[in-house]
Amino acid sequence: MKLLTAEEVRELDRQTIEQVGIPGAVLMENAGRQAVAHLLRRFGSLRPGPVLVLAGKGNNGGDGYVIARCLLDLGWRVRTLVLGERQAIGGDAGINLEVLLKLGGAVEFAADAAALAEALQRQEPPALIVDALLGTGLSSQVGGLYARAVDWINASGARVLAVDVPSGVDATTGRILGKAVRADLTVTFAAAKVGLAVYPAAERVGELAVAEIGIPAALSRALPDRHLLVEAGEAAALLPARPAAGHKGTFGHLLVVAGSTGKSGAAAMTAEGALRAGAGLVTVGCPRSIHPTLEVKLTEAMTAPLDEVDGGLSLQAQEQVRELWAGKQVLAIGPGLGLADETRALVRHLVRECPLPVVLDADGLNSLEGKPAILNQRTAGTAVLTPHPGEMARLTGLSIAEVEADRLGVARRFATAYGAVLVLKGARTVIALPDGRLRINASGNPGLATGGMGDVLTGLIAGLIAQGSPAEEAAVLGVFLHGLAADRLRKTLGEAGMTASDLLRELPAARRELTQQGECNAQG
Ligand SMILES: NC(=O)C1=CN([C@@H]2O[C@H](COP(=O)(O)OP(=O)(O)OC[C@H]3O[C@@H](n4cnc5c(N)ncnc54)[C@H](O)[C@@H]3O)[C@@H](O)[C@H]2O)[C@H](O)CC1
Ligand SMILES: [K+]
User: Fold this and answer.
1) Which domains does the chain have, with CATH numbers?
2) How far is CA 220 from CA 149, 333, 365, in A?
């Protein structure tokens, strides 16, 4: 699903009104009527109300007046409370306010705290609140009257329909500007907003309905797909082909360089993740001291002992790795490698020199701490990095709080600066592409927050590249499949106690489900 920023939506609005000539009042009428259609679908059992429409002073409020009028026509009991003076409401919103008044709509105006408190206190407790306070015009911290209204809505116990955006949510970044409405249903217009797809806003949205309001499809299509929400449809389109005559060589051979004393499991789960992704062959290069252990842990994957110091790989291993990567399609490096200085120096050397696509994770990422520019020295093959917020903080020198406060911007800036695919893990994992486009993953759940899940993802992404998927597509598809497997497991195991080994076993079925989804989509 294409996602738009507040700015892109405003531009669509402007083009539609000024270039195409569809009046804004028509868009507002369509928006209000579409919102009512979803209101009746979702809250029809609350008929005839009472409904309270809380309207701000802009066009979000304008949608609210159209909603109030439509509900009146349908026999609902609806009152409207405007946060501002009547004469302050102009434009298309003003037109609809006057129409609502002419039709006898119950409208009150509260322009200061005392008037608002008195008006709210006097209200018959509404069964349903329509939040038409603020939409894509939000431009500062929510305070004053609006803050009181948001608090009152959230404490009311009523069901809440948010018009376009839950008030207080930044439609572009997903940040909450001070405070925000918690909605049961958000009816958003023209396109889903980027900010509604990411946290913390995503937990304020409730059910999200995207309503078409008359923006010409040609204008929407003309917008670049800078932001995409990856759901089953988008992911299924990325599945690599599985030719019937395929053999092990068809599905690629990848090299995993991972593991250290006490962390052989990371190497094993990465290798198994690649096999479960459908890779043909997997070879694991690991420190000599854990090689016998991995020989026991791994059956299908081949293993190769590498030179080490203190239980971690040594610089001497670089020649051995070079020999091993000959004839491979991709290198996955980092899981459980440990942080010995020599190991970190080795990783930096291999990342700089490896002519294959590289998937870099965990301790491998930490080897680039303060030195991400090594990625610019690579001469072939795309690098895919899969940091969690802590690893991203070390990679960028930002704090974890700074990373989490601007996940989209931090991921995009890194990907474009270093020409890499940057997978910033977390709730709604962000995949930033080297050209600056962002993909936001819709699958997954907190069951993934347990050791080893990252190793599986690294193997999964590398395994897809081994099968011929371009690195960008492998990252997007791998993240979605990883989350889909967790969503399937949630149904059988619940969220707590799901392990990476459970996920490994679930991956083939997740891929089959997605393949079937893709076949359905292809048949239309
Ligand atoms: N194509 C579409 O999607 C259409 C959307 N419509 C609706 O229009 C709003 C956007 O309307 P706009 O007038 O630009 O802004 P808002 O109504 O969201 O905000 C009103 C006004 O509030 C002021 N403001 C900003 N931040 C704050 C704050 N923190 N506290 C108080 N006041 C604030 C600022 O002056 C804003 O201008 C969109 O969301 C849709 O609901 C059209 O109806 C149809 C086409
Ligand atoms: K709103």
Assistant:
1) 2-223 (3.40.50.10260), 234-241+249-523 (3.40.1190.20)
2) 34, 41, 38
Which residues, judged by CB distance below 6 Å to any ligand atom, belong to the binding site of ligand 1?
9, 12-13, 27-28, 31, 56-63, 134-142, 146, 163-165, 189-190, 213
pLDDT digits over 309-342, tens only? 876 899 999 999 999 999 999 999 999 999 899 9
Question: Residue positions in the annotated binding site for AMP?
Answer: 425-429, 454
Whether 465 shows a pLDDT value over 90: the answer reads yes
Cβ–Cβ < 8 Å for 193, 6: yes
Pairing of strands 308-309, 312-313: antiparallel
Give tens-digit pLDDT for 492-515.
999 899 999 999 999 999 999 999
Strand segments (E) across 83-158 = 106-109, 128-132
Q: Which H or E run includes 153? A: helix 144-155
Residue written as tokens 């002519």? 355
Q: Is the pLDDT of residue 285 over 80?
A: yes
| ipTM of the complex in this document | 0.96
- List the residue whose alpha carbon is closest to atom 26 of ligand 1: 138
Mutate to test the pocket of ligand 1, among 189, 212, 213, 215 (most ligand atoms within 8 A of CB): 189
